């Protein structure tokens, strides 16, 4: 069905120009949108993914070796470079990556920098942290959160198929629920049931959530953070420092919708913060939209830069990107899967 509803984008008015506000960050808007009426209620893996896609997932593995670290993160890591590593794949070099993993013979032949990726034979767990704040499902619209939930489901499926235990943790306004599951696909129905029962709402203190997680993250070697990262500019750096402690590899999935990167707005609109409920009125002009798109790009650039500075792998996971392309191409190219 189609319904008139509130969508999301956090806002911060920075001043007036005539009848318009200069938007500094994300704001919420009113528009018509299609709601997925049943997709978010499925608890069977075949309701999320078809057989052909699942077959392709069975040949994939999570990369457990930390590669893209800041110089400060390189200290004390040489002991792990010997036993227990198995070559897996290559990916393109990015500034800040550990130069010890550059494939120099390939560079001598092709004059192109590639990083060697490795499987690290490890019994460590994989933690999947899913943002359940209100901005993940603005006005009850579930497409972005369903996209994030599918990412969580597929990463759990791949990790369990690789013989890794999985810890699922809700990142929300209060201490959320969590579950731990075993090393094979028999527990996938329990994973889907857990994800289906999650309900977005309220705000999120990313720093505090990371602190609570770090206090109990015993045996975790890989952390997958799935979030829209809205309102996280000040807390993201501290949160990534906490998540990356004890040599944990962190992957940041930045989830967003097309309406957030380029809102379909014009004229007089009333906007509301999805997490606090605060409302303002705006007159949206072409100039304002251009200013917003520029600020959105700056926001994404800051998030990616912060992630890389803390040795995390950043993955841009817009909900308009075909899901199979995200999993089978983008994640392999970034070194998350091989």
Task: Report on this structure.
- The chain has 338 residues and is an alpha/beta fold.
- The chain folds into two domains: 210 residues, Rossmann fold (3-Layer(aba) Sandwich); 49 residues, no CATH class.
- It contains ten helices and 14 strands.
- It is globular and about 60 Å long.
- The N terminus is likely disordered.
Question: What would a concise description of this structure say?
Answer:
The chain has 338 residues and is of the alpha/beta class.
Give a quick set of tags describing it.
6-stranded mixed β-sheet; alpha/beta; 338 residues; globular; 2 domains; single chain; disordered N terminus; Rossmann fold; two-stranded antiparallel sheet; 31% helix
């Amino acid at each position: 069905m189609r319904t008139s509803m509130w969508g999301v984008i956090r806002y911060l008015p920075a001043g007036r120009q005539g009848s318009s506000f200069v938007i500094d960050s994300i704001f919420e808007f009113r528009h018509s949108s299609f709601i997925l009426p049943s997709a978010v209620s499925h608890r069977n893996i075949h309701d999320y993914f078809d057989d052909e896609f699942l077959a392709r997932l069975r040949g994939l593995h999570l990369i457990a070796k930390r590669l893209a670290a800041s110089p400060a993160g390189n200290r004390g890591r040489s002991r792990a470079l010997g036993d227990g590593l198995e070559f897996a794949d290559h990916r393109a070099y990015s500034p800040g990556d550990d130069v010890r993993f550059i494939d120099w013979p390939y560079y001598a032949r092709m004059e192109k920098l590639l990083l060697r990726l490795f499987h690290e034979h490890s019994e460590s767990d994989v933690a999947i942290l899913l943002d359940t704040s209100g901005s993940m499902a603005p006005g009850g619209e579930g497409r972005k959160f369903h996209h994030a939930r599918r990412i969580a489901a597929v990463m759990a499926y791949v990790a369990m198929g690789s013989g890794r235990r999985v810890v699922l943790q809700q990142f929300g306004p209060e201490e959320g629920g969590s579950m731990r599951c075993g090393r094979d696909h028999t527990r996938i129905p329990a994973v889907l049931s857990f994800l289906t029962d999650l309900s977005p709402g309220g705000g999120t203190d990313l720093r505090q959530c990371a602190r609570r997680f770090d206090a109990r993250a015993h045996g975790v070697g890989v952390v997958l953070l799935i979030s829209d990262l809205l309102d996280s500019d000040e807390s993201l750096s501290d949160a990534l420092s906490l998540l990356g402690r004890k040599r944990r590899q962190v992957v940041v999935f930045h989830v967003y919708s097309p309406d957030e990167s380029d809102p379909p707005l014009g004229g007089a609109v009333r906007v509301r913060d999805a997490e606090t409920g605060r409302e303002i009125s705006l007159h949206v002009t072409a100039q304002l939209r251009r200013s917003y798109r520029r600020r959105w790009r700056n926001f994404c650039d800051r998030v990616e830069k912060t992630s890389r500075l803390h040795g995390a792998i950043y993955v841009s996971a817009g909900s308009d990107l075909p899901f199979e392309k995200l999993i089978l191409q983008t994640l392999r190219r970034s070194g998350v899967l091989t």
